[in-house]
């Protein structure tokens, strides 16, 4: 049940955005740029990163809907549980493994980031822009996880597949545009 009395019992992110429409219109554009803009990572890989960081943050709402979006982008359903259990043996491209280690550390212990963390990503063939793109995904989900959990949005499993499909089909700006304009 949402923590804000004005939100419906089955509130979604779209119900939060009208509380501050100008701000969230800008946020949707930023999120669209992070998740769908030009990047060395595919949109599916970025959705998987978002789901991964959300799981580390114990945010079922974001983890589930963004993993469903990753599946819509072609990430196999069988990837997620092994990735959460052990990055090194997960069925993902080898060059992504240092990126996920970086994301894990940045999510759980950001104050412990050191040069060798970045160097491992660079050694796997990624450049500074790619690493920044991964960092931005992590930042995006740190924000969104706290936004949905701070408002007390319910994590209804029945909604996750549909939410993932909307992220895949509509992106971020278009699905919230009518809810966030003045």
Task: Give me the CATH superfamily.
Answer: AhpD-like
Q: How large is the count of helical segments? A: 10
CATH level 1 class label: Mainly Alpha
Beta-strand level of the residues, as a percent range? under 5%
Structural class estimated from helices and strands: mainly alpha
The shape, in one word, is: globular
Helix content class: 55-70%
Using only C-alpha atoms, the radius of gyration works out to 16 Å
CATH architecture: Up-down Bundle
Low-confidence stretches: none
Assembly state (oligomeric)? single chain
Q: Characterize the largest beta sheet: strand count, sense, and whether it forms a barrel.
A: none
Describe the structure.
With 182 residues, the chain is mainly alpha-helical. It has a single domain (13-174), classed as AhpD-like, CATH 1.20.1290.10. The protein has 10 helices and no strands. The longest helix has 23 residues, at 128-150. It is globular, with a radius of gyration of 16 Å. The model has no long low-confidence stretch (mean pLDDT 91).
Using brief descriptors, characterize the structure shown.
182 residues, mainly alpha, AhpD-like
Question: Topology, pairings included?
Answer:
Blueprint: H1 13-16, H2 21-36, H3 43-56, H4 60-72, H5 80-85, H6 97-108, H7 115-123, H8 128-150, H9 157-170, H10 173-180
Helix pairs in contact: 2-10, 3-4, 3-6, 3-8, 4-9, 6-7, 6-8
């Amino acid at each position: 049940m949402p923590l804000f009395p004005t939100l419906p019992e089955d509130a979604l992110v779209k119900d939060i955005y009208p509380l501050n429409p100008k701000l969230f219109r800008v946020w949707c554009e930023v999120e669209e740029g992070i998740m769908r803009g030009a990047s060395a990572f595919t949109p599916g890989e970025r959705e998987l990163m978002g789901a991964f960081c959300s799981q580390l943050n114990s945010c079922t709402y974001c983890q589930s809907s963004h993993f469903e979006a990753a599946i819509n982008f072609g990430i196999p359903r069988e990837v997620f549980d092994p990735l959460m259990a052990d990055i090194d043996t997960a069925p993902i491209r080898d060059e992504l493994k240092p990126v996920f280690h970086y994301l894990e550390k940045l999510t759980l212990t950001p104050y412990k980031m050191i040069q060798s963390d970045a160097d491992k990503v660079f050694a796997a063939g990624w450049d500074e822009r790619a690493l920044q793109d991964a960092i931005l995904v992590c930042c995006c989900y740190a924000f969104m996880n706290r936004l949905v959990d701070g408002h007390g949005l319910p994590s209804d499993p029945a909604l996750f597949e549909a939410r993932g499909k909307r992220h895949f089909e509509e992106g971020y700006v278009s699905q919230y545009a009518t809810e966030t304009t003045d």
